[in-house]
Design brief:
Blueprint (H helix, E strand, L loop, with lengths): L3 H4 E3 L3 H22 L3 H24 L6 H4 L3 H8 L12 H22 L17 H34 L5 H7 L1 E3 L14 H21 L3
Length: 222
């Protein structure tokens, strides 16, 4: 009988997995709180989102192998070849198309969090950095904040469709892998050699980005 542990290979570290699922919760919470007019909750959700996104950028530079941008951001020609089915290589982390989807999602979510800092609803809510710009600029940024959210909805839909395709067509459960951190050995390259950055380094980086988010918050406190 085969050993189930040996059949599955650890590819995703704990910080990357926690980041992924926390972002899912925060995006949903941000949408719900804004829809319900709970702007205090919306503010805290947005600031937490900002801290995590800044952490992910740093983790993409200094984190474990599969978390690094250098590992999953491939040249456009390789992405096109992969989408056309001409690229049959296996990838421990994100494939060429998925890697760029992740990068775009991080960039769009970061833009959403940053525009929220300068936004206002004209009545009950003013972003912590809204007073740094004119009322006209703040109003324009608020409109942009809403537009970006629509883009996020499209990206989320594409992500869900892609995950469903991999599960139903390729029999590759990406959701389970992002929970357990492990992929079946048939989905990763042979002779895989990944490095995993210490959890203490992740906590240090997260602490730094949390301080930045806290500083932003206090800019809006009278």
């Amino acid at each position: 009988m085969s050993d189930p542990v040996k059949e599955h290979v650890l590819v995703w570290d704990i910080p990357t997995r926690i980041f992924h699922w926390t972002i899912v919760v925060l995006v949903a919470l941000s949408w719900f709180s804004a829809d319900q007019g709970s702007m205090r909750v919306h503010l805290w959700s947005g600031l937490t989102l900002l801290a995590l996104l800044l952490f992910r950028v740093l983790w993409g530079l200094f984190g474990s192998t599969t978390a690094r941008f250098a590992d999953f951001l491939h040249p456009p020609r390789k992405v096109v070849a992969y989408l056309r089915g001409q690229e049959m290589a296996l990838y421990a982390g994100h494939n060429p198309a998925g890697g760029w989807m992740v990068a775009v999602m991080i960039g769009v979510l970061l833009a959403q969090a940053l525009t929220g800092l300068f936004s206002n609803d004209g009545l009950h809510f003013t972003g912590p950095l809204a007073l740094w710009v004119s009322d006209d600029v703040s109003t324009r940024v608020t409109g942009l904040h809403g537009t970006i959210f629509n883009i996020i909805l499209v990206l989320v839909w594409l992500h869900v469709v892609a995950v469903g395709f991999y599960l139903l067509v390729k029999n590759h459960n990406l959701v389970a892998a992002m929970f357990t951190g492990r992929k079946h050995s048939r989905h990763v390259p042979a002779g895989l050699n990944l490095s995993f950055t210490r959890l203490s380094n992740a906590l240090l980086l997260l602490g730094l980005t949390a301080v930045i988010a806290a500083w932003v918050f206090f800019q809006g406190v009278p």
